[in-house]
Amino acid sequence: MIRTEILLIILGMTLVTYLPRVLPLIALNRLPLPTLLYRWLSYVPVAVLAALLGPSLAIPRGELELGFTNTFLIAAIPTFFVALKTRSMAVTVLVGILASAVLSFIF
Amino acid sequence: MPGNATNVNIPGSVAGEFLCGAREALPIVLGYVPIGFAYGLIATSTGLQVMETILMSVLVYAGSAQFIAVGLIGTGAEVVTIVTTTFFVNLRHLLMSAALYPHLKKINTSVLAALAYELTDESFAVATATFQKREATAPFLAGLQLTSHLTWVLSSLAGALSGSLLVNVNKTGLDFALPAMFIALLVLQLRSRLHLVVALVAAQCSLMIIRFIPGNWNVILATVAAATAGVLLEGALKRDPD
């Protein structure tokens, strides 16, 4: 029912998710985090998301596409706008799906 | 809630503290329902089975990491790449865990180790806000976090079940659900101009690296490069303010 490779992924993810959650709580009195590391870590989430988004928008079918035929790139424009305006994940995803559906119908 | 005091809410009683915590989870519950549903929907339409989708919500319990993992599984990435990316995404919990520590000093270590399993961005936000006003206790935190986790698992299940129905009917537009989710998460993380610069550097690096290095390492390498650039720029701006 559950594939071995997916199980490995889930168990691995569980471990690496738990460690940063637990280590400061049980070890902080012995080992304070350096401030430089704090500052570096504050940029990590935004960097990961942008690193994922770049290729998924610009290379949706395995090759770089920067023209009007790339519906993902075009659909990203209203999606970004709605995300900035509403700051709501549900509304953003809904608008994104809708924009992408309309665009793939046109092109 | 004033005017709603019942005998279960006597401060100090374990059940009362647990219920107080569960009640404070309400804003988290409202937030998790649509996101958990979206996760379940996207995971099953990417090809994960319902059981796999739910197991991830039960064991990993980390929203953005789960979306990212599903995206990477969809591109056929290696186990090691997915786990390493998850590690980087969730490193931010170090900050939250460290910030919570001063409130929780009185709780014993093995209880803390269990409570830490349930730490999320949202439960951290509610917990730190609440601990300004009231004492932090283990049952309170357990009530808050278990209610949130249960909501996450149940809404993932609802999404997964609707997703496995949807895939057979129509897929149009759904392939953009994941990028749209990343856009929403990214926008929520843009706290300063420097964060925007870091995002642009990361996207550009990622696009360059993907052409030369196979295996989805672009995400990890671009993240390390862009976060380092952020720290360096921050230092340069401080030394030379204009």
Characterization of the model:
- The complex is a heterodimer of chains A (about 110) and B (about 240).
- By secondary structure, chain A is mainly alpha-helical.
- Chain A has helices at about 5-25, 35-60, 70-85, 90-105.
- In chain A, α3 (about 70-85) packs antiparallel against α4 (about 90-105).
- The radius of gyration of chain A is 20 Å and the shape is elongated.
- In chain A, about 40% of the residues are buried.
- By secondary structure, chain B is mainly alpha-helical.
- In chain B, about 75% of the residues lie in helices and about 0% in strands.
- Chain B has helices at about 15-25, 25-45, 50-60, 65-75, 80-90, 90-100, 110-115, 120-130, 140-170, 175-190, 195-210, 215-240.
- In chain B, α1 (about 15-25) crosses α9, α3 packs antiparallel against α9 and α5 runs parallel beside α12.
- The longest helix of chain B is centred in the middle third of the chain and has 32 residues, at about 140-170.
- Chain B is globular.
